[in-house]
Write a structure and sequence with these properties.
Radius of gyration: 30 Å
Number of strands: 5
Number of helices: 1
Low-confidence stretches: none
Structural class: alpha+beta
Shape: elongated
Mean pLDDT: 80
CATH class of the domain at 44-91: Mainly Beta
Distance between the termini: 60 Å
Strand content: 25-35%
Largest sheet: 5 strands, antiparallel
CATH topology of the domain at 44-91: S-adenosyl-L-methionine-dependent methyltransferases
Length: 107
């Protein structure tokens, strides 16, 4: 009985071992970006240690637009130049955890 069961299991699993991997074709090259999209610049990021704080400065074309200050103990905060005047304003509008609270059943 055991031998027939083992033989049946081996016979049923043989097609799985006999399968060949599919022949894959190389992907075509991506198309070029549309006109006007080639001048997008990535920000220059500078990380500086000031005292115990870690300060991350973000610049585009040499102009400072955002600073992230990470204290050793506490939550990081951001200073953002919202109007482009060079005056940094603290931005604490980072989303906090909002747990959805729906009424599922009431009686």
């Amino acid at each position: 009985m055991r031998r027939t069961l083992i033989t049946l299991l081996l016979a049923a699993s043989m097609p799985v071992f006999a399968q060949q991997p599919p022949k894959l074709e190389p992907l075509p090259e991506p198309p070029p970006p549309p006109p006007g999209m080639t001048d997008i610049e990535e920000p220059q990021v500078t990380i500086v240690q000031r005292g115990e704080d870690t300060v991350t400065e973000y610049r585009i074309r040499g102009k400072l637009y955002m600073v992230k200050v990470t204290p050793p103990h506490g939550v990081p905060y951001y200073l953002v130049d919202k109007e482009g005047t060079g005056q940094m304003v603290r931005d604490d509008t980072a989303p906090t955890l909002a747990v959805p609270m729906w009424v599922i059943k009431s009686w």
